[in-house]
Each structure stands twice: as structure tokens, then as C-alpha cells.
Amino acid sequence: MLARHGAVSAAVVEQMAIGALRASGADLALAVSGVAGPDGGAPGKPVGLVHFAVLRRGSPVEVSQQHFPGDRAAVRRAAVERALQLIAEAALIGAGAHESGARGKI
């Protein structure tokens, strides 16, 4: 995947989330990869582009991307905020299963 798509790609974050879920035994995984800058941008992968993947056990991987403006610190901060939002949303969706008696670890 890395050789074919590059580290900053939907395909790679999807595989990262799958691997994290498998290796950890958790019920929820998040993967993030992006170009924070100030250098490293390329055609189709500009500085500020960040890919996210969230995976709940038993559900399909949800992959998204966003482009954040600003310098390296601003891109990193925005990516962390979005990642936390995504994982919180996924955990809340999964909370319904826990209320019904299912048990797991995050």
C-alpha cells in the first residue's frame, strides 16, 4: 500500500486502522496520516491534506479526508481536533451496543 499509494492516502489509513484493531484487540481504532508542512506537499497531496480512518469492530472502515489551512502547528492542531471528534462519535455509536449488554475494550 505504501509503495502504491504513498503514506498520505485513504488506502494506507484504512490498512492502518485495520491493523491497529487486529493488533490491539480493541473494539475501536483510528488512523491519521497527512502533510502538515511546511514542506512535503506534492501534486494531489498539498500541505494541509489529512486522511482519517475510523473502524469499529464488526463495521466497515469509515475513511475521510480534509484540507486544513495554516502552518504546521495549525494543521496538526486541526487534525487532532478532528480525530478526537471522529473517535468520540464512533465511541458514542458503539455505546448503544454496550448498553445492550455487549462488552469490549477501547
What can you see in these coordinates?
Strands 1-2-3 form a three-stranded antiparallel β-sheet, with helices on both faces. Helix content is 44%, strand content 20%. The chain is of the alpha+beta class and 106 residues long. Residues 98-106 have low confidence and may be disordered. The longest helix is centred in the last third of the chain and has 28 residues, at 72-99. It has helices at 2-5, 10-24, 72-99, and strands spanning 28-34, 49-56, 62-67. It is built from three helices and three strands, in the order H-H-E-E-E-H. The chain is globular and about 40 Å long.
In angstroms, what is the radius of gyration?
Answer: 15 Å
What is the SS-derived class? alpha+beta
Tell me the total number of β-strands: 3
Low-confidence stretches: 98-106
Lateral strand order in the biggest sheet: 1-2-3
Report, as a whole number of angstroms, the end-to-end distance.
26 Å
Biggest sheet record: 3 strands, antiparallel
Strand content: 15-25%
Principal-axes shape call: globular
Mean pLDDT reading: 90
Tell me the helix content. 40-55%
H and E order: HHEEEH
Number of helices: 3
Which key features would you list for this structure?
alpha+beta, 106 residues, disordered C terminus
